[in-house]
Amino acid sequence: MSVFLRQFINHKKYIIILLGTVFIIGFFFGFYQYSLTNQTVKDFLKNLFYLNTESYQNQYQLYVVQGSLYILICTYLSSSYYGHLGLLFLMFIKGMQVSFSLMYVFSIVPVSFLLILFLLMEIIIEIVLCFVLNTTCMHISIYVTIVTFYIEQNFNMKSMMNYRLNNLILTLICFSIALAFRVYIIPMF
């Protein structure tokens, strides 16, 4: 397992660094932009978390729709020449969504240790989901660009589809863990 992880990090470390940088910039930009944004955008981006508190209204269906659309759009962008730019934009928006949701939660829910623990766990699950999906999709998009414009080589469709399906399966497992955490773990507390 460590050999696989080492090869994955060595081959994709610049993609991971780029995605991390864009996510952090989006995260801090979201704190700056929260008070300046109109209410419609705030309402769309503020319900990332699922909390067992009466003062916070959970939007489970909205999270499922947003997560499904995010997976679908990232998968579509991975087959495009310039899809890596769109994937970076989606990662920026995800960073903004995390900061918008944090600002909203801290404005209406009293702060406690359990709240911070659940928020931290949900943020980690969301970041893992985004990085797993975006890293592989960005790698595929860059490969499509290189093969199309720079290298005279044909696609190996079998390995490309296998790679894409493995990515989709891993992403759906991460998304299922996020959904199960929201439905089964959080309501216990």
Termini Cα gap: 35 Å
Helix-residue proportion: over 70%
| Count of alpha/pi helices | 6
Estimate what percentage of residues fall within beta strands: under 5%
Tally of extended strands?
Answer: 0
Q: Which residue ranges are poorly predicted, with pLDDT under 50 across at least 5 consecutive positions?
A: none
Shape: elongated
Overall SS class:
mainly alpha
The major pleated sheet works out as: none
What is the gyration radius calculated from CA atoms?
18 Å
Mean pLDDT equals 86
What is the element string, with H for helices and E for strands?
HHHHHH
Tell me what you see in this structure.
The protein is an all-alpha fold. It contains six helices and no strands. The protein has helices at residues 2-33, 39-45, 60-77, 83-108, 113-149, 157-185. The longest helix has 37 residues, at 113-149. The protein is elongated. The protein starts with a helix and ends with a helix. 26% of the residues are buried. The mean pLDDT is 86.
Summarize this structure briefly.
The chain is mainly α and 189 residues long.
Question: What's the arrangement of secondary structure elements?
Answer:
Layout: H1 2-33, H2 39-45, H3 60-77, H4 83-108, H5 113-149, H6 157-185
